[in-house]
């Protein structure tokens, strides 16, 4: 399946197209936030606190007089940064562990999959919450005591490290399960026997014949997983152990403004809806990709 | 098949031992000094040492762990650091007394409705109704609690004054309605999705074709032949939902001011109250693992295809 055909299929499928547009917009907004946002996310104007909607402040201002619209735009930078780095760390880990478990089997397979089982033994967000709550202060202390990590602390980026480390530590397991199951099923196909019959080595079979065929489920899982990362980041930030103010995070914005939910509901609604729409977009995109990769399977 | 079940059961104590150990290590050494947190930065070193000794925190790690596990096995989870002097087990059973009824109400409306919507969607596959249900479900899965709750609260509690904005007064008061709706949307969506897929898959089975060929009524085919088989995978989801009872509703309970386990977990996690943190994490994992096992055994009991050896 080539790139052009997949794109054609995505554009034809309206929810998927919606997903693609929103996801692209998220990343572009994230990259160009400093130029797109009318003001800096930390810029306060104490003469204009709790303003409602106006031309100057399309979404009003918060209790420190910060422009909500700008903070939403900067929030896209946080969200896209966390998504990209988390997936960039967790995915290769998952692919490698899954591929090793799936192709070699035996003890190494058992060990890897049991570790994954442990990560899956916790309900819902409990493990994420637990890890962030316990690892956070440790990572913070470590960074403070290490000279070359000092810029991270001073720049206020340590929260990002905590969130990304937590999510990547958990995220690889799902990917490993997926890749392993793909390996186990593809290993039995005739063309693998054929390749072996022609004298292909183990590594050649893995890299040339199996891995390329696991690519489309991996891409689908990535799109679905990205929504999960956004939700988890918002969840942690909402609970005050993720990205903390003044750094711009949608989850933290909801938490910080929650006390105004009666009088200024927009302060709470807008970041919540933005998170929801982006997760929806990733889900639509994932569904669409799934259908584009498997044109003959009926949607179920 | 029996072998598989036995292996699963044997794996559980080991899994729990590993989990308790990891949770213990992270709980004690992860978040920094709980004593300092209790007494503040400028506490008298003598007081710190005395409290440390009193709480047994000056002993070697493995001794502390062995001690913890042996007490755990006797049902003693220690005392909370944040709510001083209160036994963890009492705090948790008290919050479960709120969380369990809330979850029963939540699942009580969302699971039946989800199954119904899923069956209808599958029955009317590829019609406008099916597409509308599927779309609603994706939106329901995507919208986080902190997006839905404030909007519902605003319209029902502030604008319309129909429902109270929060608080807890048992499940027979109006306070339960909004949180149960908010909490139920996710399970409802998952339920619809699973049921629809399962029913669609069952419809294409040979025995359904046979039933149709015999001239049975569509209604009878649906209730006698399709549903009992389609609902088996749906059980798994119910199990997963029951398993996330402990501390599964952090945000909803916070937003609605409900003194359930999610809220207590949040308060104690942020206070680094590690006896409570460990208790919640271990209990959460145990409930989750056991409910999964229960579902597997239930599969085994109700589906003869699984029971029969290959």
Keywords for this entry:
heterodimer; A: 300 residues; mainly alpha; 11 helices; 0% strand; B: 310 residues; MetI-like fold; 14 helices
What is shown here, in short?
Helices cover 74% and strands 0% of the residues of chain A. Chain A has 300 residues and is an all-alpha fold. Chain B contains 14 helices and no strands.
Per the CATH scheme, the topology name of chain A is MetI-like fold
How many beta-strand elements of chain A? 0
pLDDT < 50 runs, ≥5 residues of chain B: none
> Would you identify the CATH architecture of the domain at 96-307 in chain B?
Orthogonal Bundle
SSE run of chain A? HHHHHHHHHHH
- Shape by Cα distribution of chain A: globular
Number of strands of chain B: 0
> Please, what is the CATH homologous superfamily of the domain at 96-307 in chain B?
MetI-like
Q: Helical element count of chain A? A: 11
Q: Taking all residues together, what is the mean pLDDT of chain B?
A: 81
Structural class of chain B: mainly alpha
Query: Helical residue percent of chain A?
Result: over 70%
CATH architecture of chain A: Orthogonal Bundle
CATH class value of chain A: Mainly Alpha
From the spread of the alpha carbons, the general shape of chain B counts as flat
Number of domains of chain A: 1
Task: Give me the strand/helix succession of chain B.
Answer: HHHHHHHHHHHHHH
CATH class of the domain at 96-307 in chain B: Mainly Alpha
Task: Give the chain pair forming the largest contact, with residue counts.
Answer: A-B, 47 and 53 residues
Radius of gyration of chain A: 22 Å
Give me the oligomer status.
Answer: heterodimer
